[in-house]
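S1.2 Input.
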Amino acid sequence: MSQVITIGLDIAKNVFHAHGADERGVMVFSRKLTRGKLLDFFAGQPACVVALEACGGAHHWARELQTMGHAVRLIPPAYVKPFVKRNKNDAIDAEAICEAAQRPGMRFVAVKSEEQQAAGLVFRTRDLAVRQRTQLINAIRGHLAEYGWVAPRGTAHMAMLADLLEEEEMISTLPRAARPMFKIMVDMLAELDKQIAVLDREIARRAKDDEAARRLMTIPGIGPIAATAIIALAPPIETFRKGRDFAAWLGLAPRQHSTGGKQRLGGISKMGERTIRRLLIIGGSSMVRQASRFGAPAGSWLERMLARKPRMLVSVALANKMARMVWALLTRNEDYRAPAAVTA
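S1.3 Output.
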């Protein structure tokens, strides 16, 4: 019997499927496994390459398999899909994962430790709280519009609106059954504001304690939230050969659809880590807004871009530029130095 060199593992909540192949890629076994028997099965296998899709729970199983001596490879699901043959089931998916892992040009995802995943959890929690706050604000505004009150948009006006809901002038125009419901939503909104403030303080503390985060905050447009998000969510910076590779991983590079030697570039690809990409675009937008209001430095790249391009396009282009700066600063262990202005 041929020796297993590569195992493709299709993971789920309770039922898994393993596909083993030898050095020629020929199938050695294809086996369905339950969750309780998965680790016992791999404990009996010789040390080999185990490939999984980089999805929910993949990092946990990767760490468990690494402790057994296996070399674990996490593959983005989009790179596995071309190897799936007709139809779809667990056995076919496991075979596709195994075949994808054997390609010499395949790209893999770095396995994260528990500490790395915990460091990124604060941003996931904050994003969840911010989304819930936005939902509550929209709900309050929408329900008030049903009774003739049009509230201004934005979180800055919510404190004023909460005060108005306590006054007799507005309360008297609302049905008796609706008043306690608005009270509940306003109280929920106040509690979410407190929780978000706690998370913001925690992120600021982490940024202050981390040397790399402090270095990143020297870049204009990058604050404590963006700096700590990059440190917590991005893979090791040595993974990328140059700054453009890091920007492309974030999805800030143009999407290509070129053929026949003719280059066709579209909008940004929006691939990679969406949290970091969003924070960089927000930082770029704040710089563009400030430059539009007070003027950009004379002769700077930002001044030339604003003179001939739309503001949103400049914001995304600036986010791309900031991503390259991040790569350069983390690679060289240096602080940001503002470029000299170009003079005519």
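S1.4 Remarks. The chain has a mean pLDDT of 90.
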